[in-house]
TrEMBL record, chains A, D:
Name this polypeptide is given: Molybdopterin synthase sulfur carrier subunit
Species whose genome carries this gene: Ancylobacter defluvii
SUPFAM superfamilies associated with the record: MoaD/ThiS
NCBIfam families in the cross-refs: moaD
Pfam family, one: ThiS
UniProtKB/TrEMBL annotation, chains B, C:
Subunit annotation: Heterotetramer of 2 MoaD subunits and 2 MoaE subunits. Also stable as homodimer. The enzyme changes between these two forms during catalysis.
Keyword DNA-binding recorded: no
Name of the molecule in the record: Molybdopterin synthase catalytic subunit
Molecular functions per Gene Ontology: molybdopterin synthase activity
EC number annotated for this UniProt entry: 2.8.1.12
Organism in which the protein naturally occurs: Ancylobacter defluvii
Length: 83, 169, 169, 83
């Protein structure tokens, strides 16, 4: 699936987007975040306070316990500061 | 997804780098109709002292750069507009949110609501702004003389959005 | 009477027969400044079905004629603006109320408020409209095909004004 | 003192303004309205529901029990319907 990063999550990880194949036991947004956090230093830094990082599944806001099965695009980002 | 609009209904969401023309947007919503009793506009502007209290070096803001999630921003705001339409009798609404680099004094966001009655127009505009702040995928990067920082989300904004909650959008 | 305005504050009240230009009024309030974060405008328009429910013959509105108390109207609205300034941190406000004959689709009233923050701009604009409805000395005469009637004051307007009360202006 | 009338109060009385010398025992807005109501048919019609008619003393809203002593200009009118 495609993973997108925005704002300081993007800056810490050092990329905007990537294709990721997560193992079957990664079933929720929170589990995906934990899986990604283990990929390296930038990732660990981005996800070090997992409750702060928000997610969207296929362009809709998703809670940490949301299932990722069937998702095409998952995004991680800080709390929004638009408007 | 937006419900098919009854004829005469005018609902617009745009994400753009360019500035907008508030007068033209009001006109687009209300021109040629005699059923609108109230039009409310909200313009959000970039302030020189935006988040000034928390500036690490106390320096003035040079510019904001607004990053957004292109695939989601318009969709999410459309969902908020649809939610507003279920709550208030709106005859039209326009939301425009800019992205890119914006200097103090420039526009960031515009919300226009039109209704037969003033209460609905006021409340829908305030609702859209409160929810847009906490749900639309935009992030502000501050540029100051000595620093650049991502703006932190405000608890006050969450509280403002929560006041509309019973069923969240 | 208005308190002497700190430099940079812009507060305007006008009673006039002519239409107004909302964009020009926003610009007059916000041009050249970088301390305004939020501008809210309320435009009240004449609807073809204004008070339609209570039309004795069910006919559509041809026009409204707004009578006012010339000596008092501007003074009273200035008092409301002064009251709003004591309640919210406003950097500017403009209220324009038309008098004379107005046909459906035309503007009747404009309120513009500017503040560093959106909550203050929204609330001050709603406050000014609610109080203006119940305190500004204007009276609407409806002209229909078969009748002319003075518009009756609405209890809903009194209720809307009362929600701001603890200390009334 | 000068008395002004607006909207249907003006129409019923048939004039916009007049100079009135009220006797000394007319001390409040309500007493002035009652005094005026006795001046003729149009006046009686204008003030027949005295609680509906509003007043201003020297261009400020005034309650029925407000004293009129010293007033230069008193206006009577229906509830406002501007905005």
């Amino acid at each position: 699936m495609k993973i997108l990063y925005f704002a300081w999550v993007r800056e810490r990880i050092g990329r905007e987007a990537e294709e990721v194949e997560a193992p079957d036991e990664v079933r929720t947004v929170a589990e995906l975040a934990a899986f990604l956090a283990a990929r390296g230093e930038g990732y660990a830094e981005a996800f070090k306070e997992p409750k702060v990082v928000r997610a969207a599944i296929d362009r809709r806001h998703a809670r940490p316990d949301a299932a990722i099965a069937g998702a095409r695009e998952i995004a991680f980002f800080p709390p929004m500061t638009g408007g | 997804m937006p419900v098919a609009a009854p004829s005469g209904d005018r609902f617009t969401v745009r994400i753009q780098a360019e500035d907008f023309d508030t007068a033209a947007e009001i006109a687009a919503l209300s021109a040629g109709r005699v059923d609108i009793g109230a039009v409310v506009t909200f313009s959000g502007l970039c302030r020189a002292d935006d988040a000034g209290d928390s500036a690490p070096d106390g320096s003035r803001l040079v510019a904001l750069t607004l990053e957004h999630y292109p695939g989601m921003a318009e969709e999410e705001i459309r969902r908020l507009v649809d939610e507003a339409r279920t709550r208030w009798p709106l005859l039209g609404a326009t939301v425009i949110h800019r992205h890119g680099r914006i200097v103090p004094g420039e526009n960031i966001v515009l919300v226009v609501t039109a209704s037969p009655h003033r209460g609905a127009a006021f409340e829908a505009a305030a609702f859209l702004m409160d929810w847009l702040k906490t749900r639309a995928p935009f992030w502000k990067l501050e540029e100051r003389a000595e620093a650049r920082n991502w703006v932190a989300a405000k608890e006050a904004d969450d509280a403002a959005a929560e006041r509309w909650t019973a069923g969240t959008p």
